[in-house]
Structures are given as structure tokens and as C-alpha cells.
Amino acid sequence: MKYKYCAKCQRSYIRSRLEGDRCIYCGTDCETIDVKRNGLYYFGYTLMLIGAASVLIPRFMTVTGPSLFVYTGIAVVVAGAVFVVMGSTKMAKTAEEMALSEEKE
Fold first, then answer.
1. Would you list the DSSP string of 45-56?
2. pLDDT number for residue 39
């Protein structure tokens, strides 16, 4: 996953595909850093898929109390989103650390 790091703003953020080499906050040149996705990121997306699947279970099976599956599914999707955000935040910190270590060398 590609991140941008701006030395002037001291911020790192996810790079979009159509974005240039300028910081979205201050407009100065910034560095692109490639960061490997971490386990929290994958775990969050796995939880989101499981939550979405549990919402669909009552459609394919005759289960009493389908609202339990719906509420559980929504809760698991929200928990997955929280893990994705935590993983993305950790990757942004890693990108910042990588950029600072390259500047020192």
C-alpha cells in the first residue's frame, strides 16, 4: 500500500491513484513510501466479510430469530471497520518512521 509523507507537515496518509507528488495539506513536494499491509488490516476485512455473510444467513436458511443474525452481523462489520482503521493508522506510523529513517541516512 502506498503512503505519502510530507516532511513539512510531518503527516503521512494513504496515497490515492490520481494524486500527484504534492502534499494535500500544504502543497509542497512529498515522498511516496510503499508499506506492507499488516495483520490488523487483513483481520478487519475478514471480520467484515464474516459479518456480511452472517447477515445473509437468514435469507438462505429457515432460522428462528433472523434479527439476531442481522444485529450480530452489523456488530461484526463495525468491529471489522475499527480493526481496518487501526491497521491503517499503524501503517501510516510505519510509513512515517520509514521516511524519517531514510532522511537520517
1. HHHHHHHHHHHH
2. 93
